[in-house]
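== Folding task for one protein ==

=== Format: two labelled lines per protein ===

==== Paired sequence and structure tokens ====
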Amino acid sequence: MSGTDTSSGGLDPQDPNVLSVTAAMVNRRGLHARAAARLVTVAEQFDANVEVRRGDQTVSARSIMGLMMLGAGRGESVTLMATGWDAHAAIEALMALIEAGFHEDD
């Protein structure tokens, strides 16, 4: 899967080997360019394969363009999915970022 693939392929949240958690966008502008860049920066700190899903679109957490194409606005939810030896740490770090509103000043 390429970094900007928005197909329904990718990790399956029903797979027992995939960590999966749902997060709501709490920042004012949702998953816009700056927020997407911050999410990519955090995702790149881990070896885990991390994907983000909204509706039937799934993208790599390492793709700024893919993340922005999800169009997740304030109050909308995305599903974070990860596999790999550090998947749990990656999910925790990404959840902390999202719950902190991407550290934006609203």
Observations:
- The first strand starts at residue 19 and ends at 24.
